[in-house]
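Please annotate the following for my students:
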Amino acid sequence: MHISRKKPSYPITPALRQYLRDYDREAPLAVSYADLRSYSGSFALHDRAGRDTLWQTVYYEPQALRELSAGLAQVYALLKTAGDLSFTDSLVADRIDFCHFGNSQPFRVRILNQLNDNYDFFYVKQADASRLYGLELEHLLSPNSMNFLTSGPTLIEEHIAGIPGDDFIRLRLSQPHLNQVRIAKEFVKFNERCFARLLGDMRAYNYVVAITPDFEDEQYRVRAIDFDQQSYEGNQRMYQPRYFADNAAVVDLCARLLKPENVRQYQTEERTLMARRARAERHRLRALLDVMRAHDLAPPEKVEELKTALNRYHRTQKFDYCDSMGDLVRQNLWLMLGPRTLSTVMP
């Protein structure tokens, strides 16, 4: 499958900016994305096995670093504690990494608590409208709360903990203690969530697997971490993780361990949960979709291609009335989650 690696960045419209203000996603920030671009140099960051991570650790002039560190501690406090600065004297930005690979070209900031040497991460990115819609849809329709803030062209995102999907497949999928049936179940549900809200490009390195010990076993959750390809591509299969080659090992696991009735059960379970979340957040979801429907988020030819593909998939002609990617998301949710459930969201 061909993926648009150089997807253009779509600006935040006044309507989207107002939505972000209305739902406390907009805040004044002490440090912007542009401020972090003024680094003096960089060197490659390698993992514990000595492999290149594709991240570069950047460094700054001493005075600039002191100012940035203080500002980044304030940003972290705003993200985590709604701006309570009472503890920021003990926080320092002890490492800043930059990744030129990817549409948002993010900075990753490691915040260290000097009192106990504990550290946490957050990301500073260029604010792309596609990604913001993706983050909000994930927050409203998935089991995962998304913590992020915007200010002008800057986006701040909380770190999502988990094992990168490619590492999980390569290192853990065949381990004897792994509950493979539960992994297969979660991948089916993940595939269903992505397709329902049209989140694309879920190759293995664009999601993580979070593992939670249970009293008898382990529970797993597959979580998207990259939202740049929200409703952009025209190929319907781009929104179904099962079609990506680097997910083949998990797809084979699903085919081997799950019967068709199991798959239908897990799909129905996930759609039911999404519908319940949509009802609970109906006013906010409707506001988001209204803004998204009026926003051009893909070339017209991609909208037409996806419209045709979704008509074929659902055996309907209802997508003929859609004029934008936001319209397609709305109609796809309507068909997959049920008109009765979403009538208050999409009358």
The chain has two domains: 14-128+147-158, 163-342. The longest strand covers residues 118-126. Strands lie at 41-46, 52-59, 91-98, 107-113, 118-126, 148-151, 154-158, 163-164, 207-213, 218-224.
